[in-house]
Amino acid sequence: MTGQPIKIDGAFRMTFSGYLMRLAVMLMAVAPAYAAPAAVLSLTPAHACQPPAGSPGKLLDLAYPNASTGGNAPFDHQVDINGDGWCDWVSTAAQPPHRDGVELMQPQMKDFIFLGGSRGWRRFGNAKAIRAFIDQHDVDRPVPYDGGAEVSGFVSPLFIFADGEPRPYVAALALAQDVLDARAEDVVVYRWHGGFDALLRVGEQERAMVIRFLQAHYCGSKVALPVQSVAEAVCAR
Question: Where is the signal peptide, in residue numbers (predicted)?
Answer without folding.
Answer: 1-35
